[in-house]
UniProtKB/TrEMBL annotation:
GO terms for biological process: menaquinone biosynthetic process. Pathway: Quinol/quinone metabolism; 1,4-dihydroxy-2-naphthoate biosynthesis; 1,4-dihydroxy-2-naphthoate from chorismate: step 2/7; Quinol/quinone metabolism; menaquinone biosynthesis. Keywords: Magnesium, Manganese, Menaquinone biosynthesis, Metal-binding, Thiamine pyrophosphate, Transferase. Catalyzes the thiamine diphosphate-dependent decarboxylation of 2-oxoglutarate and the subsequent addition of the resulting succinic semialdehyde-thiamine pyrophosphate anion to isochorismate to yield 2-succinyl-5-enolpyruvyl-6-hydroxy-3-cyclohexene-1-carboxylate (SEPHCHC). Binds 1 thiamine pyrophosphate per subunit. It comes from the Bacteria. Residues 399-523 form the Thiamine pyrophosphate enzyme TPP-binding domain. Gene3D superfamilies: 3.40.50.970, TPP-binding domain (3.40.50.1220). NCBIfam families: menD. This is 2-succinyl-5-enolpyruvyl-6-hydroxy-3-cyclohexene-1-carboxylate synthase. It is an enzyme of class 2 (transferase).
Length: 550
């Protein structure tokens, strides 16, 4: 490094951090989530300097797991890599849930973990463990580098490789990457960091997508699992141009328009479902067992759309994998049959739910869905909430952007993901979660007063336990004795007090009109909307809903 370059008088650990942060900013990184620590102090100072210079935006979170999901939400919302910076030891391990979700959901994250020098391994030194390889095969690239004089020249190339891999420019499979940076004392600047060295912008090109043309087939459906808004929009165009049914999970971002079928999962095991001969699969469909059975059928041709090196084929039945397909338009009779059945099923479902005591899970999800439009963002909890939303009516031309952490379908980090989505898009986010999902990430509400503000409305369906297990095998009457303790997991947490402890607004909802009024208001800051539900009849309700299927 030249003596005239900014920071040349600083300790080498600080200079290395300055070079790395400058390069990441030059490569297009605009958001960094930092969890405080001692070993990552050089990185903290460098990121703060970049924030002051307007090169990127810094977000500080004291809980690393919440930090991970905040970054995940920002990367989901923006589509651009977000950097996570942690200190050494267990701090790094707390990022693992978010890294796993980012891996399976193909979300670009750049994890930079600070570490002690390699010579301190296996010596019993404080906060020192084997961080290299901690995320194993969950990251696209895992690099290690000692912050010394020789590494200063290597850091720009390392940063480029990390960002390229995270974006999926080379593999076409975006996802998390990991740099473990060994930092030795001294860890603090000897003078204020007033400037960073110049970085090197990255220029890349993308290959044109490969496409195949499928022959006409009257039994074709387009099935969309968890997918990006762009992939969902492409799936919708494909279905509408071909005139075939569009079966989309809520987070498939294709649950709208004239081809969309709201009650598809209730129709798949009936005569219409049995008439399917070809599935064009987009995204990551894992939400319901009827879909899993469909993807495993031997009498169905499965064509998977993927622009990367990974695709979904849990039944090992895929006959083709392509980046794009075209399907000749049919006469529309196949789609008309699905539309008719869906319309009749929707009317029966609406009547059933109207006769139920309010609120109940499906009715609550439908109410939230109905309040949202094209300018809105909806995040769904990955357990019962997203399944309830899967029964809601489809939108017309104006549908919100919908997200859920369905890469691995865990409930952890959902509040933090919502905060990250808001920060990454600059828009308000409505989240619909169960009480256990909310409590699992209550630390997502812990945001310092000087941090960038997120606008998030968290609607909590509070049935004081785990409703989803009542609808599964564990909820069978003959297994009732240990159910509450093992699976229902009841609690007595006062959500109003919990929100107040974090300085967050809490709004209880007593009736449907009150909910409608709350949902119509502009989202400003963080707020918790609590809707109390009774889960005692949930298994019976689900059985009666399934019985509506023709």
């Amino acid at each position: 490094m030249s003596a005239v370059e900014p920071g040349s008088e600083q300790p080498v650990s600080v200079r290395a951090a300055m070079v790395l942060v400058a390069e990441l900013a030059a490569l297009g990184v605009r958001e960094v989530v930092l969890s405080p620590g001692s070993r990552n102090a050089p990185l903290a100072y460098a990121v703060e300097a970049a924030d002051r210079a307007g090169l990127l935006r810094l977000h500080v979170r004291v809980d690393e797991r919440s930090a991970g999901f905040t970054a995940l939400g920002m990367a989901r919302g923006s589509g651009a890599p977000v950097v996570l910076v942690t200190t050494s030891g267990t701090a790094v391990a707390n990022l693992h849930p978010a890294v796993l979700e980012a891996d399976h959901a193909q979300v670009p994250l750049v994890v930079v973990s600070a570490d002690r020098p390699a010579a301190m391994l296996d010596t019993g030194a404080n906060q020192t463990t084997r961080q290299v390889g901690l995320f194993a095969e969950s990251v696209r690239v895992a690099a290690r580098l000692a912050a010394d004089e020789r590494s200063l020249d290597a850091l720009p190339a390392v940063a480029r490789r990390l960002v390229l891999a995270a974006r999926g420019d080379l593999s076409r499979t975006p996802g998390p990457v990991h740099l473990n940076l060994e930092l030795d004392d001294p860890l603090t600047p000897t003078a204020p960091l007033d400037a960073l060295p110049a970085g090197h912008p990255l220029r890349t090109t993308s290959a044109a997508p490969a496409s195949i043309t499928l022959p006409a087939d009257d039994g074709t459906v387009v099935l969309v699992g968890d997918a990006t808004p762009a992939a969902g929009a492409a799936a919708r165009r494909l279905a509408e141009e071909a005139g075939v049914p569009l079966l989309s999970e809520p987070s498939g971002n294709a649950r709208s328009g004239p081809s969309a079928v709201a009650g598809y999962r209730l129709l798949l095991d009936g005569p219409l479902g049995r008439g399917i001969t070809r599935v064009v699969c987009v995204g990551h469909p894992t939400l319901s067992r009827p879909v899993t059975r469909l993807l495993s059928r031997r009498d169905v041709e499965l064509v998977v759309l993927s622009d990367g090196s990974r695709w979904v084929d849990p039944g090992h039945r895929a006959s083709s994998v392509a980046q794009a397909v075209s399907i000749p338009a049919g006469d529309g009779s196949w789609l008309d049959r699905w539309r008719t059945a869906d319309r009749e099923l929707g009317a029966r479902l609406a009547d059933l739910l109207a006769a139920e005591p309010w609120p109940n899970g499906p009715a609550l999800a439908a109410a939230v869905a109905g309040s949202l439009g094209a300018a809105d963002i909806w995040l769904l909890g990955s357990s019962q909430s997203v399944r309830d939303a899967d029964l809601a009516p489809v939108w017309g031309a104006s549908a919100p952007q919908v997200h859920a952490n369905r890469g691995l379908a865990g409930i952890d980090g959902t509040v933090s993901t919502a905060v990250g989505l808001s920060l990454g898009t600059g828009r308000g986010v409505t989240a619909l979660v169960g009480d256990l999902t909310f409590l699992h990430d209550a630390n997502g509400l812990l945001i310092g007063p000087d941090e960038p503000r997120a606008d998030v409305r968290v609607v909590v369906a509070n049935d004081r336990g785990g409703a989803i297990f009542a609808t599964l095998e564990q909820g069978r009457p003959e297994l009732a004795a240990p159910f509450e303790r093992l699976f229902g997991t009841p609690h007595r947490v006062d959500l109003r007090a919990l929100a107040a402890a974090h300085g967050v607004k809490h709004r209880p909802v007593r009736d449907q009109d009150e909910l409608t009024d709350l949902l119509s208001r502009r989202i400003t800051g963080l707020e918790v909307v609590e809707v109390a539900l009774d889960r005692s009849g949930r298994r019976d309700l689900d059985a009666r809903i399934r019985a509506l299927a023709p």
